[in-house]
Please model this.
Amino acid sequence: MNVYTHPQPEDWAALCARPTATYEDLVPLVRQIFDDVAYDGDRALDHYTQKFDGVELSEIAVQPDAFAAAELRVPKDLKAAIALAKDNITRFHQAQTTKRVQVETQPGVWCWQEKRPIQKVGLYIPGGSAPLFSTILMLAVPAVLAGCEEIVLCSPPNSEGQLPDVVLYTAALCGIKKVYKVGGVQAIAAMTLGTTQIPKVYKLFGPGNQYVTVAKQWATRYQTAIDMPAGPSELLVVADSSVPPAYVAADLLSQAEHGPDSQVILVTTDAACVPPIQQAIDEQLEKLPRKDVAKKAIENSKIIVFESDAAAIDFINQYGPEHYIICSLKEDEYIDNIQNAGSVFIGKYTPESAGDYASGTNHTLPTNGYAKQYSGVNLDSFLKQMTFQKIDAQGMKTIGPAIELMADAEGLQAHKNAVTVRLNDLA
Amino acid sequence: MNVYTHPQPEDWAALCARPTATYEDLVPLVRQIFDDVAYDGDRALDHYTQKFDGVELSEIAVQPDAFAAAELRVPKDLKAAIALAKDNITRFHQAQTTKRVQVETQPGVWCWQEKRPIQKVGLYIPGGSAPLFSTILMLAVPAVLAGCEEIVLCSPPNSEGQLPDVVLYTAALCGIKKVYKVGGVQAIAAMTLGTTQIPKVYKLFGPGNQYVTVAKQWATRYQTAIDMPAGPSELLVVADSSVPPAYVAADLLSQAEHGPDSQVILVTTDAACVPPIQQAIDEQLEKLPRKDVAKKAIENSKIIVFESDAAAIDFINQYGPEHYIICSLKEDEYIDNIQNAGSVFIGKYTPESAGDYASGTNHTLPTNGYAKQYSGVNLDSFLKQMTFQKIDAQGMKTIGPAIELMADAEGLQAHKNAVTVRLNDLA
Model:
């Protein structure tokens, strides 16, 4: 890891930089696939599944008996682990339920705000090297709690044309029945446009590689919303010598194994903690099955030593990390002053892995500095807020004249007249 | 207005269609202006202000004494009306404040969710034919309540190179000090990219013409968030003979005067109410200063008679209106079953104008069917949710083994190891 000592604020922007986005490069392919799916529907899906996943499917939709068969093959201890994670995720997301907000702003003027579920949502679960069933929990649990009527799940088939057993098991456990063996850009296009088999949805959720990321952004041209723009996963740890170096090293490596473009940053004001952490990284790295990936990510990663905690906090807020671990004697200072972070992990027994899987928080979080303006996925991500108002004769008399004056000042006479016709009757 | 009687569900999509978007056509100009502002900063702003607004400004930023001078020129009764509106808007948005959500999901596993303000936000206030000071209230009041640190407001100068007095007065009343005389695409580009004079923001809010709408979408390529995609304003009224036809006519016309592309729809199951409403429209239309605009919008508008309330409600949910007025004896049915609407106005004394100006609800709402997945602007629009977690030794022992199993099943050994190094010490 590269060590930077006491960097000046004018150099922070460079230290905050993420890998260059390749949006423009990927657009032509994404556009082509969307156009093909729009034109050819399910036939285009078959074509791209053959091309990219290398399999010919007799059926895109997972059939009911496949769920039952998969369940039998998932080990009992893994089922128990998933059950524990699901319980915690359910508990934390259910607690996010809010009541209707109602205010009588003036006598006879009642305004209220209610949340109603987004009726149709699409969940994208990446495939590739690992079956990411944990992401199903993170998306399906709040979607079901929110009351979404139609929940569609797409995930790419493996080389046998199947989805992993644990993916089917977890989907069924969450009550998701519409599961389709389609991945990549073509899955995003299908859920955006709708095909004969795959329903069109109103909002898309889930992580993915750079193609899926661009496809989700492209989908927004078709009146589909997305959970958030995504980029490679990130972790920033602020640490000092009070925490075992092996813990910090293990946390940094857990992020590094995601991909060579993963962003891993260690921030400290305690230069003495750096060498033992670096040594622990070297030791642990050798034992990792994905050490080639992790090594590349670690090589691009940064250790930054700041002169003061205030400077460190300013930098962290400028960076806006997706995951932010605090292992410091000055824990409260680093918690209270954080403005921009996706999810915060506090203390030496709180690794990022806990939130990735089982503590209850969501692991679908804003990357690439988007923590400055986006929330991670939460219960509200599956709801929209609507306002309501009801005004009686008294209320109209109270606020009507003000509306007339304001509409008149804005030059909108018909707006004024909608009040005047009523006030005339009430005079 | 065109009358459609008992349309079949297969024809509803056509009835729900909005004017075709012209995104692709406007992109080249928007891209050019963004590039120029990126390269030339404030000089590019001066150039485009001369070109599009026809004025040469000595200063882009509104100076402190200009606010004081404007205040003296705003009539007292208009100030009182603005104060009443601001009070109601403040009351309704303040009530939307939520508490921190905290759950101990397992003994020793504490998870919580907090909202923190988006630090830098930009408010765009359109100019053109009317000084839309009401939009300042709708955006600045919740931004200030949320605690946003830096609030930037841009609005195009008039032909004298000034902002209208009431715009400056309202901005100052809301506590907004950073006001810039820049409009259109160049204003959106400036707040997205930052110039020497205008700060870069994290999220952009506010309505605008089609150029501004495309510019906001373009801004999302530069890590800026936007409140929502926008389109021409819309109103759907469901009515029957129980309401005076003049009220329904006035409401439909208040929407129609916005622009020739405004969407106005009357839905009913009571065909008898249609002729009197049409007659009232004709009568009121003649007296409107903006009758040419309203006439065009009305010509393109639709009256749809449904066989049943159930069909009417299904249609309304498929349409997803920005504004939805219910003037019907079956009020409750039309309220309880609405799934997709921006803001709902109930009963004969609740014109849309009330929510546009003074009742307390926000008037920045999703158009073009986006009510299916977007909320209107509300307090949360200026906040982001962050999650936090703290786990102690007992908590780690409880959930650690489940994390190890799940990480292992996903093939992520470093994620597992982050738990294992801790559990080994706790064994």
Observations:
- The CA atoms of residues 83 and 166 of chain A lie 12 Å apart.
